[in-house]
Amino acid sequence: MIRSSLTAAIGFTALIFGPTTAHAQDCDVPGADPWEFTEEQVTDLYACMEDAMQQAYSSGDNETASAYRDWTATSTRPAVAGAHGERFLYTFANDVAAEQYLRFAENGVTMPVGSILAKESLKITAKGEVRIGPLFIMTKGDPGTAPETADWVYSGVQPNGQPMKFKQSFCHDCHAAFEGQDALGYPLPEVRVTN
Ligand code: HEC
Q1: Containing domain of residue 161, as a range?
Q2: Which atom in ligand 1 lies closest to the alpha carbon of residue 155?
Q3: Number of domains comprising the chain
Q4: How far are the Cα atoms of 7, 8, 131 from residue 127, in angstroms, in the given order?
Q5: 123/52 Cα distance (integer angstroms)
Q6: C-alpha angle 84/29/21, rounded to 5°?
Q7: Nearest CA to ligand 1 atom 40
Q8: Which of 64, 68, 121, 145 shows its CA 20 to 30 Å from the CA of 159?
């Protein structure tokens, strides 16, 4: 019983955080360990992938996927933080969210209603190949609309443009740990955009 639910949990995690669609890319991937990439290598890889990523996410009808690239980038480059499947992560904030988000405040944060954070992801496989990962999205609803998740709605777009399916608790059980920050994890300190 315990083992089967554990297996199910792992399978579920792999479904969400494992590599999704395979894209043959001509981009130079410097190795199989994303933690070892230099800043320049990450920047070069992203420069090679960014058009394909935007096209992939916006190939369905998700509004955020078509809009987020015009929003405010919250870090100087993608970075691997560990969570979200050790992918390189790059978060964009819409106009409603940007000012408050970019303070990276640690206490008493309440993001304005209508805030949207959209986070691109890139996965390096064990073979040292690059895969486009999901676009992860958090949208702040009106007070009381989603009391169990601090009024955040979690969603995601797969690289084929289609919506991801998961339970809200899957995302929020982890994000809720960012107490005082309105459930926001923020990019790693060394890559945060300072204004
Ligand atoms: C195991 C913990 C964990 C889980 C599960 C998780 N996240 Fe995150 N998430 C983080 C961390 C840590 C960050 C900040 C790291 C970074 O972006 O560099 C983050 C950042 C984000 C951001 C950027 C906004 C922010 O918090 O700063 C979005 C959007 C996001 N996650 C969406 C999701 C969605 C959607 C899911 C569910 C499919 C999910 N997350 C599941 C840990 C998690």
Answers
A1: 2-191
A2: 35
A3: 1
A4: 24, 25, 11
A5: 14
A6: 50
A7: 171
A8: 145
